[in-house]
Amino acid sequence: MDRLFLPTEGVDASLRGFARAHAGLVELHEDPTYLLARERHPDRRVGIVSGGGSGHEPMHAGFLGRGLLDAAVPGRVFASPHNRQVYEAGKAVAGPDGVLLVVKNYTGDRINFGIAAERLRADGVEVRRVLVDDDVATESEETGTGRRGTGATPVVEKLLGAAADSGLGLDELAHLGERVVAASRSLAVASRAQTRPADGGPAFELPDGELEYGVGIHGERAQRTVSYEGLEHLVPRMVSDVLDSLERAEATGDDVLLLTNGMGATTLLELYTVHDAAAGALEERGLRVAAQAVGTLVPGLDMAGFSLTVTRLRDDWLDLWRAPAVTPAFPAPTDIPAGTPTGSPAPVEATR
Amino acid sequence: MDRLFLPTEGVDASLRGFARAHAGLVELHEDPTYLLARERHPDRRVGIVSGGGSGHEPMHAGFLGRGLLDAAVPGRVFASPHNRQVYEAGKAVAGPDGVLLVVKNYTGDRINFGIAAERLRADGVEVRRVLVDDDVATESEETGTGRRGTGATPVVEKLLGAAADSGLGLDELAHLGERVVAASRSLAVASRAQTRPADGGPAFELPDGELEYGVGIHGERAQRTVSYEGLEHLVPRMVSDVLDSLERAEATGDDVLLLTNGMGATTLLELYTVHDAAAGALEERGLRVAAQAVGTLVPGLDMAGFSLTVTRLRDDWLDLWRAPAVTPAFPAPTDIPAGTPTGSPAPVEATR
């Protein structure tokens, strides 16, 4: 039994520690609980709000700051925030063009962000929602609720943040967000369940040598269990499933963004190994990895495993990805030399 | 049994993935294996080289780049690099004032970096070594080998990197490094052992509800096992042990740097909770947390647990900590508003 170092009463102490460690960038509001970025680009006309259950840090509060989110609304572990939190955060950051809500596709989040949107509209604030639903594992089996929102969320938030800084209006941002979501897919595997906060037991059991193929970020059981026979078999299969789903969505474009994300307990040593294999598999399919990030950005507590997210890039999305952001945790694009003009073609070395 | 996603043949694929993901900042050399920063400050007169066994990522390669390390030399998992790797890396980055080696206090690293230093000197390159030995858990019992080098390593490397950019010479840097080491202490606890790469088993067994108090970054067994009775008891005890050791070393100063470090499988949600408690415990002792960082910087593979590192700050060390660095993974100081002049007193808000 593995106890987490978490107080049973919730995540307040963690939020205080976060606000203390990054006091130059963020401020914590209590009752109701939400976090705000201290700065925003002067051209930004729309406040961007995201949030959801805790246990997926650094998402979302770690992405607060100039060039990214204006407000983040954390719930308790794996539980949606209350609509009052979202409403108050939206009021606090509404721009002249209103508020954009970035919502992962889970029932609780949809309901609470939806009520908050209605309340904001009742106050005269324009609101649009971007619903992130990228998880290939849930594409066919849960047709009622649709695909879950997982690893693509940081990508969607980054591109929207950069676009907001260029002065885009609310409808333009919402449209961009929908297009980025439609061009993004993720797939995750777990080799060990996360710890259940309540009693320290594993959230699910896995037979020895098996992986959950298509696991969710809360430990939702996968489509199937597969035998682990090495990354050289696993990763191309995952890449293939992700690309197939993008093909069904008619997302095209030879330049892709690849995010190799840790599920919580997976080391960087492993993630970079996975990343090299995934980038190679994409290149074998004739794609160019024009943008990339590696790290634990969307974990499910301390689950062992990883997810791959692919976004097929179009228009100015690569420039939006590379635009500067100042946040506690969003990874800087370091696959190209510093100072490379964002409008120019990427140097070839970044993808070799 | 939890298999790691690591190929049995070693860490080469991971290094390739790392070099690909951060190609704008680093380059990978093979045969022998080492990594170089692509840029260095024009005023830097000394090349700074660090390294050690793999499994502690992002240390050291993640700290390559302007303002920090010039070369990083990875061994296999938990094994010292070969002296030829260190020698070739040193040759590649030697400045007009020579090479500074930052070495964690382990026998294998001491030997291999020592041989490399002799070979460099035989080539006419000036070399000095800074030996990091901060782990309070090994202060008394292993008097033959001294304290292990653990969580203070990123702090030492950051301050030395910033100082090197100001044009300091080799002897001045070595002297600074020794003083920072003397003013830094760490202590780690584990709630679960890391996975043994060879067979997927746990590297050690822990009774239910117990912690290894004083564990090493390779899973070296602790001074003692303690019952976990909540962070409110554990963290002040750790802070007290760390401060007692600093007192024995006659390290003084009311401004401290606090690094709350994850051992691999510990979530940010937990680490920020720990950080809040640790900062509070330091403040209760009358100290000011003038600089801080939270994250998984020096893990031991996928061990669950955390370490606390305290450095008592003096002279211009706070400025050195806050000086800009451009690396794949070193955390930016975000506890103070961006643009705060580094020479001015820190705003009070950062430590409240």
TrEMBL record, chains A, B:
The entry's keywords: Kinase, Transferase
DhaK domain mapped to chain residues: 6-330
Region (Disordered): 331-352
Example GO molecular function: glycerone kinase activity
SUPFAM superfamilies: DAK1/DegV-like (SSF82549)
Residues of the signal peptide: none
Domain of life: Bacteria
GO biological process: glycerol catabolic process
A Pfam family per the record: Dak1
A GO cellular-component term linked to this record: cytosol
Gene3D superfamilies in alphabetical order: Dihydroxyacetone kinase, domain 1, Dihydroxyacetone kinase, domain 2
InterPro entries: DhaK_dom, Dihydroxyacetone_Kinase
Protein name per Swiss-Prot or TrEMBL: Dihydroxyacetone kinase
